Write a sequence for this structure.
């Protein structure tokens, strides 16, 4: 189940990220010339085709980076960190300065107490949906764990990577959301644009019609590098799943190149992401429903792991070298409850009943997609016997590593 949900989540994320870069580019055309004849309205099939073509281009660039030699690809990691750091500094320093010189900051009352209901939902659901916006800050921390599996002392590096990725998301995510809220123009102005990415419009209003291009370019480069690095994590996830013979064609997907890189897994994950991008041609709403699973799948996997640790293997769980001791079960319960709530938010309807009844395409299909993936995962589990699962693991030590170390020390002591 976790393998199926996480695999779908990462694949959808690659498609959504490539599509996001395309939206930045198209939005710049609209911001420079609001009366442009360039196809940009999402209701126009030509505009969707243009966005699709740009999305495939950026996905191809991110994919080709994954075929660089390992030592060369290290610079992609370094470049990604540098670009993200520049992006954060621009938003923390340059954006507030620009806002102070133009339309001014929003009040604290607007940021902390006001609400905006753009979907015609009930007040309670509208408040719950406010968590939908920050979903990108709540997932993706497992990427560092997948990448760290190829490092020395992976059992420690993977756990440390996931922990510090979570800390970094919290430290950077919370203040940047506050900055965006304080720097927002009036909501009517923010959404009064035909550009598919409203943030480009906000940058143009705050930083100037030409200077804001710098911030947009930095965001686009950062997103492309982020897509490539995410593909590294996703391909390692596919490789691990194929190595354990969980899904069909595992023998081909777990093969590595001469440089010991899972290129077959990279091609597979990029192909699925490209197919997902094709769904925006008939309807962009359907594509957005598909890509909403990029967060829902990961959050469902996090919650299931927490549930299993707290209620199924509470007494039989064998601690790793990075464990929480007596707080492990408590944190697992918190993990299950929090991710259960976040999953419900991502699958909740984003529009009122009257709007959905008038336009069925506004329905949030995330729960339908997750249900389908769940059925496939269960089918794969029941299709194979326990002897087939994890056949590559020949010997399983029944003693935890900690106990084994203790026995070794006692045997060598005088």
């Amino acid at each position: 189940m976790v393998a199926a949900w996480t695999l779908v989540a990462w694949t959808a994320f690659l498609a959504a990220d490539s599509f996001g870069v395309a939206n930045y580019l198209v939005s710049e055309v609209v911001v420079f010339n609001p009366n442009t004849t360039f196809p940009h309205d999402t209701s126009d099939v030509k505009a969707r085709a243009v966005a699709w073509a740009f999305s495939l281009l950026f996905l191809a660039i991110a994919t080709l980076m994954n075929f660089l030699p390992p030592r060369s690809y290290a610079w992609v990691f370094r470049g990604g960190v540098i670009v993200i750091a520049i992006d954060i500094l621009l938003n923390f320093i340059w954006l507030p300065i620009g806002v102070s010189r133009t339309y001014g900051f929003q009040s604290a009352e607007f940021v902390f107490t006001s609400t905006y209901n753009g979907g015609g939902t009930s007040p309670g659901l509208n408040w719950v949906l406010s968590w939908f916006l920050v979903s990108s800050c709540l997932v993706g921390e497992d990427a560092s764990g997948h990448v760290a599996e190829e490092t020395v002392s992976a059992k420690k590096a993977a756990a440390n990577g996931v922990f510090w990725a979570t800390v970094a998301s919290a430290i950077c995510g919370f203040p940047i959301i506050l900055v965006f809220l304080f720097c927002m123009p009036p909501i009517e102005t923010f959404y009064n644009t035909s550009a598919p990415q409203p943030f480009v419009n906000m940058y143009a209003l705050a930083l100037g019609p030409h200077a804001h291009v710098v911030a947009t370019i930095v965001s686009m480069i950062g997103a492309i590098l982020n897509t490539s690095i995410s593909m590294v994590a996703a391909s390692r996830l596919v490789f691990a799943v194929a190595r354990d013979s969980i899904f069909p064609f595992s023998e081909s997907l777990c093969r590595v190149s001469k440089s010991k890189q899972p290129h077959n897994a990279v091609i597979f994950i990029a192909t699925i992401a490209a197919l997902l991008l094709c769904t925006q041609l008939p309807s962009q709403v359907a594509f957005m429903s598909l890509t909403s699973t990029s967060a829902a799948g990961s959050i469902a996997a996090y919650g299931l792991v927490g549930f299993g640790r707290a209620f199924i293997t509470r007494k039989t769980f064998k601690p790793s070298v990075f464990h929480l001791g007596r707080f492990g079960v408590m944190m697992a319960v918190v993990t299950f409850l929090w991710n259960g709530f976040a999953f419900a938010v991502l699958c909740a309807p984003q529009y009122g009943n009257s709007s959905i009844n008038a336009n069925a395409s506004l329905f949030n299909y995330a729960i339908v997609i997750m249900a389908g993936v769940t059925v496939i995962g269960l089918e794969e589990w029941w299709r194979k016997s326990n002897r087939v699962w994890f056949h590559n693991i020949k010997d399983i030590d029944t003693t935890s590593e900690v106990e084994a170390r203790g026995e070794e020390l006692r045997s060598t002591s005088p």
Summary: The radius of gyration is 23 Å. DSSP finds 20 helices and no strands in the chain.
